[in-house]
Amino acid sequence: MSRESFDVVILGTGPAGLQAAIHAARKKVAVLVLGRQPQSSLYKAHVENFCCLGKIAGGDLLGAGREQAQKFGAQMWDEDVLEVTSGGEGFVIRTESGREVAAKSLVLAMGISRNKLGVPGEKKLLGKGVSYCVDCDAGFYRGTKVAVVGEGSAAFSGALTMLMVASEVHLIYDQASVEPTLAGQVEAGGIFVHSGRKVKAILGEKLVEGLELDNGEILEVEGVFIELGAKGAVALAGTLGVMMDPESMQYIAVDKKQATNLPGVYACGDITGPPWQVAKAVGEGCVAGLEAAAYAKDRRG
């Protein structure tokens, strides 16, 4: 499969990512935005404290931003990112459909995951068999039976990762929302798939001992990976070597130019920490987009 090249690739379709795309594209560089807009925390919310606008539905605001970015030349691919690596003079991004993209600079605007199952045992057994990051914790479950929960690309790719580590892998989801290529890999991989099912409870006293599904079935597992949506900041940034906030290890550390510790990589929006406000996301996206475009232009040769 051929690899497409862009000057700036933006991960995330929320207000930070879209604003970065608008400003980068206006600088006449090739811009690609990756992600599924309904995954943005703003998509189903309403905004009434953003300067110069009255109350507006989040989905409408994002839709307008998407149109603006496209008007200035940015391309939009409605798919998630599975992997980002450094390669040659820039970065290589692999998407859930199997496509590969080369970029001179990156803008990380994936937001943060606020999604939890909200089932009995989840909070109590966090760190004792319950994890929210396959890429971070897979090695602790070598040779064990595990379950991955989620209907998006993070869960499906996570199940494939665990297949190389664990002795038995279960994937549990209600309705899948992934590209056919990724779904096909899971179907052919020897993973026990429980489609149309939800987790009722996570079982165990001091450590995870199993899962109860909504049909009453009990799965005997030692690890439960809750991966709801797309891959998050910790998973993607960690593989690149991007520095996280040392106090929380949840947010990406940036300077006043939204630059990370890695040259050519910028971050903006919720992924850089609170407050969780559209105004902050848009302001940081503006700076990140301009800086990423300037960096890419410098490396055109």
UniProtKB/TrEMBL annotation:
Question: Which protein is depicted?
Answer: Thioredoxin reductase
Question: Is this entry keyworded Phosphoprotein?
Answer: no
The question of whether tRNA-binding is a record keyword is answered with: no
Q: GO molecular function: any one?
A: oxidoreductase activity
Domain FAD/NAD(P)-binding, chain residue ranges per copy: 6-285
Lineage: superkingdom: Bacteria
What InterPro entries does this protein map onto? FAD/NAD-bd_sf (IPR036188), FAD/NAD-binding_dom (IPR023753), Ferredoxin-NADP_redctase_2 (IPR050097)
An example Pfam family from this entry, by short name, is: Pyr_redox_2
Check the record and name the SUPFAM superfamilies matching this protein: FAD/NAD(P)-binding domain
For this UniProt record, the keywords arranged alphabetically read as follows:
Flavoprotein, Oxidoreductase
Checking Gene3D superfamilies in the record gives:
FAD/NAD(P)-binding domain
